[in-house]
């Protein structure tokens, strides 16, 4: 979750990575399955963790999906659609919105950038996020193919249940990576060089989630790199412009804090499995003061977001629309989420993204439109494009 080099570097390895589990004998042997016409067995989307986060009773049967996008596909395509999480777009949104934030924040700082170019750049970012999120899921599930079957929430993923062979999963991921490269080549060449520094972070994540209580921090550093990439995508030289560097850096840091916040809520869905398996996680480390940590992360996110706006020269529309809405949506989420209720954690993880990112986006859109139309000054669009 991608576009800039982040699509081919950051999101492919980290967007869908989950908590790792200890390797045991395969737990699905001997369980009842529903015969299918394929050599592989297909899982119902309702038994995937993304669609049944509130399941308390272990599921021992699975059937092909009967509703939703995945159910409308040819049966032989269904496992690949499930592998790419097409039935759950949340990961794609979490990849896309930081790139949209940076694009809208950078647009007034760019020279001669028309709205149609901003829209086209955002469209490329979304395409990259969609493609590379699928590649990241495939790569993650390949890493954890011997671990996922032992976790109730992940045991029916396509590779874990044998619906897709590891070899076919590699081919599927490779195809998506090539498609992501095609998207990457549509951006200015400098995007590649700005994306390269994310490589060490991406490589570190699979190790971090095995040895530290804070793998979500490393994950956020990796997948939120897109919060920087909107600037070079619109031709803004970050290294040559102090204000742009400060704006990009603080926006990126803000998005990382946001990532740790929502992933901490997500981690609470697995907390019982983590205890049983002896797995480290940020939810376990701060199980008894989670909401205090979430509050601190929310304040950090909004403060850094405001700093990014100051560096970019934003006006009151941004601070009221983006920062104000972020305070309200994050505060509501932290107040309402029931951390011991898996269904509640899933609802806020999925919908909290849309609430917070939607508010930030509308504030940035209003700010960009105001500056483009010259509402803050006596000048109009022509002067803005020449600035």
UniProtKB/TrEMBL annotation:
CDD domains according to UniProt: PT_UbiA_COQ2
Where the protein is mainly located, per its record? membrane
| Record field: catalytic activity | an all-trans-polyprenyl diphosphate + 4-hydroxybenzoate = a 4-hydroxy-3-(all-trans-polyprenyl)benzoate + diphosphate
Q: Which UniProt keywords apply?
A: Isoprene biosynthesis, Membrane, Mitochondrion, Mitochondrion inner membrane, Transferase, Transmembrane, Transmembrane helix, Ubiquinone biosynthesis
* Enzyme Commission code: 2.5.1.39
Residue ranges of the region described as Disordered: 1-30
Gene3D superfamilies linked to this entry = UbiA prenyltransferase
What processes does the entry annotate via GO biological process terms? isoprenoid biosynthetic process; mycophenolic acid biosynthetic process; ubiquinone biosynthetic process
Q: Which residues cross the membrane?
A: 93-116, 217-238, 244-262, 292-311, 317-335, 347-366
Q: Where is the composition biased (Polar residues)?
A: 1-17
GO cellular component terms given for this protein: mitochondrial inner membrane
Recorded metabolic or biological pathway in which this protein acts:
Secondary metabolite biosynthesis; terpenoid biosynthesis; Cofactor biosynthesis; ubiquinone biosynthesis
Cofactor(s) recorded for this entry are:
Mg(2+)
One Pfam short name: UbiA
Give its localization.
Membrane; Mitochondrion inner membrane
Q: Which InterPro entries match?
A: HB_polyprenyltransferase-like, Prenyltransferase, UbiA_prenyltransferase, UbiA_prenylTrfase_CS, UbiA_sf
Question: How the protein sits in the membrane?
Answer: Multi-pass membrane protein
Its Gene Ontology molecular function terms?
A: 4-hydroxybenzoate polyprenyltransferase activity
Which protein family is named in the record?
Answer: Belongs to the UbiA prenyltransferase family.
Q: What is this protein called?
A: 4-hydroxybenzoate polyprenyltransferase, mitochondrial
């Amino acid at each position: 979750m991608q576009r800039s080099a982040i699509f081919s570097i950051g999101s492919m390895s980290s967007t869908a990575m989950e908590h790792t589990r200890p390797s045991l004998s395969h737990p699905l042997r001997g369980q009842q399955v529903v015969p299918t016409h394929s050599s592989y067995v297909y899982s119902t989307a309702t038994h995937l963790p993304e669609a049944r986060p509130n399941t308390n009773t272990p599921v021992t049967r699975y059937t092909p999906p009967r509703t939703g996008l995945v159910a409308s596909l040819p049966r032989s395509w269904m496992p690949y659609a499930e592998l790419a999480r097409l039935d759950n777009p949340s990961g794609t949104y979490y990849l896309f919105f930081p790139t949209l934030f940076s694009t809208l924040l950078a647009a007034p700082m760019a020279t001669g950038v028309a709205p149609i170019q901003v829209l086209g750049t955002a469209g490329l970012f979304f395409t990259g996020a969609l493609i590379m999120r699928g590649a990241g899921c495939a790569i993650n599930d390949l890493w954890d193919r011997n671990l996922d079957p032992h976790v109730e929430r992940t045991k029916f993923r396509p590779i874990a249940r044998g619906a897709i062979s590891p070899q076919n999963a590699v081919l599927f991921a490779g195809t998506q990576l090539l498609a992501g490269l095609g998207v990457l080549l549509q951006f200015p060449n400098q995007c590649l060089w700005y994306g390269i520094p994310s490589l060490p972070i991406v490589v570190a994540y699979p190790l971090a989630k095995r040895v530290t209580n804070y793998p979500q921090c490393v994950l956020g550093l990796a997948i939120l790199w897109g919060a920087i990439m909107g600037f070079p995508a619109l031709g803004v030289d970050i290294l040559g412009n102090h204000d742009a560097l400060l704006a990009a850096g603080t926006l990126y840091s803000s998005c990382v804090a946001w990532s740790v916040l929502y992933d901490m809520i997500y981690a609470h869905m697995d907390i019982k499995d983590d205890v049983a398996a002896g797995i480290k996680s940020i939810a376990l480390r701060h199980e008894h003061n989670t909401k205090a940590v979430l509050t601190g992360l929310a304040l950090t996110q909004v403060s850094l977001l405001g700093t990014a706006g100051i560096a970019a020269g934003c006006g009151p529309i941004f601070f009221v629309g983006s920062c104000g809405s972020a305070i309200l949506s994050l505060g509501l989420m932290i107040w309402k989420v029931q951390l011991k209720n898996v269904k509640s954690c899933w609802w806020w993880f999925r919908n909290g993204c849309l609430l917070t990112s939607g508010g930030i986006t509308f504030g940035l859109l209003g700010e960009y439109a105001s500056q483009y139309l010259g509402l803050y000054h006596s000048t109009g669009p022509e002067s803005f494009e020449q600035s």
